[in-house]
Amino acid sequence: MPINPDTGIWDSTYSPPAPHDLPAVRHYLREVFAQPEALAFHTQMVKEGRFSLDLIRSPRPERAAQLILDGERDRLAEAALYWVSPEMTQVATAAAVTLPDDLRIDETHQPAEHGFIVFAEPIGSYLGDVLGDRRVDIAAASWGPLAGKPDATGATFYSVRDDDYVRHSLTRIFGRPPKRAELDTAIRTTPEWLWDNEITLHHGSTIADLDAIQELSTLLNGEAVVPWLKVLYASWLLMTQPGISQTEQVTPNRRLQRREAREGIRTSEVRIVHVHRRHRDKPTGNQSSDTGDRRYTVRWLVRGHWRNQPHGPDRSLRRLVWINPQIRGPQDKPLKTGQTVNVWDRPANR
Predict the structure, then answer these.
(1) Is 317 exposed, middle or buried (0-12, 13-18, 19+ CB in 10 A)?
(2) DSSP conformational letter for 314
(3) Which residues of 233-253 are buried (b: 16+ CB within 10 A; e: fewer)?
(4) 127, 216, 286, 346: which has the highest count of C-beta atoms within 10 A?
């Protein structure tokens, strides 16, 4: 039972999809967002003011919801697909907290104009779901241009359904275990991947501006979306640095490629992002010192830092690079980054 007896919180276990499954996840989400149930749900969210005003392009809630869903479907159709390994996720999480305050949001930092990324470990969490008692993990995101806003990029964050929690919540609601048909209906009508929240990146704004938005939104309604965005942004920067990360590709099977071609979807190889070899574990085993043998029980991140590095003609240009992170310790030991997962303790708004 994943309920923590000390806190009463349901701690879900996140199992990421395999890299080669990302095209199928994308197809699933596009189908979900085309369903009448999704339109009804998002219409209600618009009525309750749960969506960013940057996405509302109609005074009529149902029309606004339809435009929001269509925009996300189009974004997914054009998305380059990324799967980030566990250690690369941890490095990005560590790098996110040290992004310079004066770093300006720039669309050229994105590895692709449209993207869908799945992390092998959660990049954040909050306390929410039906009864407000589940630790909901944020594990995926999409991004792309926003209609009518050429100076902004929209990012959507996704959480994952927990079937055992659905059963648990129904039991609490009904006061008895759910019948098979009731459970099947609840699972069928709850998407496996859930649009959890969204945010707009205004090009030219700074990390300090995002932090100010975070402070205000936390004060007003407890939202903590910006820490997730900073992990995503750090991932973009790290993915474009060959010396820090390395990428391999998985090609979708031909049947899926044919289906995507029929639907007008960008057929994209899945890019699997790893920590670069030179920054991976350096076998240390048992290491000796002046005081005798030292046995390491964990791996650890030798913390890197961001630097504006000169480049271009006469080294007159600057680009932000991440300098010298290293993961050390025995390969068979757990990685300890010293970073805590951002927790958003408030009921979910969708």
Answers:
(1) exposed
(2) G
(3) bbbbbbbeeeebbbbeebebe
(4) 127
Distance of alpha carbon 209 from alpha carbon 233, whole angstroms: 14
- The DSSP string of 275-299 is E-GGGS-B---EEEETTEEEE--SE
Name the residue among 31, 22, 17 with its Cα closest to residue 73.
31
Q: Is the Cβ–Cβ distance between 130 and 221 less than 8 Å? A: no
Query: Structure tokens of 44?
Result: 């209600």
CB atoms within 10 A of CB 49: 10
Residue 286's nearest CA partner among 274, 296, 276 is: 296
